[in-house]
Amino acid sequence: MSKLQTKAFQYDSWLSQYFESAVYRLNCGNIDDSVISEFYEITRNSAFIYAKVASDEVIKTAKLEELGFRLVETNIQLEKILIDSQTSGCSLLNASESDNCRVRFAEESDKEDVCLIAAESFIQSRFFKDPNISPEIAKKVKSGWAENYFSGKRGDYMVVACCHEKVSGFMQLIRSGENLIIDLVAVDKVCRGKSLGRKMINFAENKIENISTIKVGTQLCNTGSLNFYQKCGFIVTGGSNVFHYFSK
After folding, report:
1. CA nearest to 147, candidates 110, 193, 93
2. Over the stretch 146-182, which tens digit does the pLDDT of each residue have?
3. CATH of residue 197
4. Which residue in 52, 76, 112, 154 is deepest, having the highest Cβ count within 10 Å?
5. Would you give the end-to-end CA distance of the chain in angstroms?
6. Do 116 and 211 have their domain in common?
7. Do 131 and 25 share a structural domain?
8. Kind and range of the H or E run holding 148
9. Is 89 found in the same domain as 64?
10. pTM for this entry
11. How many domains does one find in the chain?
């Protein structure tokens, strides 16, 4: 398996463990002749390359398409400004203890339930949408992504929602200064419609100190998710396109 590393092409060791080829992230700065040469060098071997560009970067998009990259996802970025991070949650915070549902920070014993929910969710994500990636691999990627929190590899906080004492949803969070980024969020399909997502956001707003903004990304095609975040007070701040390339 080739592991060529350059300034433009960053080897993704974590994602590579799920694929039979080396996985790279293309950092789309200036896609010049040297980057194109590196691309052809890497793709002489089996490789999976992904790249993200802002929705308005037409020239970069055209260059990626010329190289054979395929658009797999349009991502929408949203954010919510918290005027007072300790009082910004609505009355649903108190409701999180009702209806046999409780919201709390994750514990080590939650790992199995969280990973199972992650494996069965995110069907709108790029890993599930790309026909070159099997559903089995996509499930392993998302389950492993959530598991990284418990091994200390990704995420600063995790919030879980429990119904009848069983973990029914989770929210994986990354802190960047006063910004809180929702990295992953999912609710077990049998427990949807109980406002668990809103309760987890309210819990994070009220229990995590010194945050001024919550940021999140979701797929353009995921209208339910977009509507949900806007109802929670998030506003759209930008968009990006994600491309995949597979060499055989």
Report:
1. 110
2. 999 999 999 999 999 999 889 999 999 999 999 999 9
3. 3.40.630.30
4. 76
5. 12
6. yes
7. no
8. helix 135-150
9. no
10. 0.89
11. 2
